[in-house]
Amino acid sequence: MSEGAMRALPTIIAALAASVSLSLPSFAATLRSVSGQVLINRGTGYKPVTTGAEAKTGDVVMARPGASAQLVYADGCKTAVSPGSVVTIGAESPCAGAYAQVGPQTDWRPYLIAGAALAAAGGGTYLIVRSQKKSTPFVAAGPASP
Question: Given 17, 34, 102, 105, which is the most exposed site by the fewest CB atoms within 10 A?
Fold first, then answer.
């Protein structure tokens, strides 16, 4: 690998890691099939929510009597919020653990596309840097004259 490629490699890796971490979902679960009065407390008191609302780790979801909803976690796990119940959103889905389903639950295509775009940008940057690299003259070291 050339010296220019070696210098560009850490930058390419850092850019790829940053884009993947920034593109991951920032929520733990999404509320679906909200029926009746479902409330969420994000630390500032309970507020009504509708279908599609996102809940983060630590949020508390409550379904009033006669109300219900479904929590869909990032890994595809689905749990019911029953009438009159209170659910605290954990860092992991309830399906994670010893009895978790094995297999892909997340659509990874957007992440793969972002990674491929970053790799292409990094490769293009490397080629530009390599083509603009100034050549240094080769000086042969010989014996010193007395």
Answer: 102
